[in-house]
Design goal:
single chain; globular; MetI-like fold; 262 residues; mainly alpha
Length: 262
């Protein structure tokens, strides 16, 4: 039994080493002063990070991506929480069909969804505009917000809301004083997932951006088409740290597993 446990631990360690090996390569190549990516680097230094700080295109793309992701997250939370509450607490014909429609974008290939948005937005004048990007990204993030919030609401016993109502609280007060606090772990998890999904979206953004409005992932995509230098690795490390920081904040405040399991 002990031998089996030891073998299992070794297998887990080897699996993690296999999964994390590319991250180690990216981290090491980010500390390079070479003109092109090479592993191991021939000249060590912080040239990649200095070039990254001075890249105006990346800074502009980062600003757009942060504003876009924050806006999309807010819209997804408001709409997703409302839709999830209606689906969980009210019984009406077609509720299952509505849930299927809300989550349908998850079943469509991103390139098909992006092409459809391109054809529609070209007629509406929404190409290369912030409203167009917000709508396009919201189609991707809203299903996640609905699913997570729906799971969170279904984990709340209706008896708690009924008890508050029998004590004289109205529907609005019951929601904000009882339901919403109990939904908080799911809301935070949905917010983190929606933000990361929007911030990292590439395929749909390729159809909707323009020369005067672009996101950071699109800037990276165009950059690596023509060159590969330590600046790319430095940016990858920064994005990994940003993602890890967001996950740690959620875990420390609420617990990722508890937020997803409620």
């Amino acid at each position: 039994m002990d031998d089996l446990s030891t073998a299992f631990r070794i297998a887990v360690v080897l699996l993690f080493a296999f999964l994390l090996a590319p991250l180690v390569v990216v981290l090491l190549t980010s500390f390079s002063n070479d003109e092109f990516l090479a592993f191991p680097p021939h000249h060590w230094g912080l040239g990649g990070y200095r070039a990254l700080v001075g890249n105006a295109a990346f800074r502009a793309g980062l600003g757009t991506s942060l504003v876009l992701a924050a806006t999309v997250t807010a819209i997804s939370l408001v709409c997703g929480a409302g839709a999830a509450y209606a689906l969980a607490r009210f019984s009406f014909p077609g509720s299952g069909f509505l849930l299927a429609i809300f989550t349908a974008p998850l079943l469509l290939p991103a390139i098909i969804l992006g092409l459809g948005l391109l054809l529609v937005f070209a007629r509406l004048g929404l190409l290369a505009t912030m409203p167009g990007l917000v709508i396009g990204h919201s189609l991707v993030t809203l299903p996640y917000a609905i699913r997570i919030n729906l799971t969170a609401i279904r984990g709340i016993a209706p008896a708690l809301e009924e008890a508050a109502a029998t004590l004289g609280a109205g529907p609005v007060r019951v929601f904000f004083r009882v339901t919403l606090p109990l939904m908080l772990p799911g809301i935070v998890a949905a917010a983190a997932l929606a933000f990361l999904a929007s911030f990292d979206e590439v395929v749909i953004s390729l159809f909707l951006v323009g020369p005067r409005l672009t996101t950071l992932p699109i800037e990276i995509f165009h950059y690596i088409e023509y060159r590969a230098d330590p600046q790319v690795s430095a940016l990858s490390v920064a994005l990994i740290l940003l993602t890890a920081l967001l996950v740690v904040i959620v875990e420390r405040s609420l617990g990722v597993l508890r937020a997803l399991a409620r």
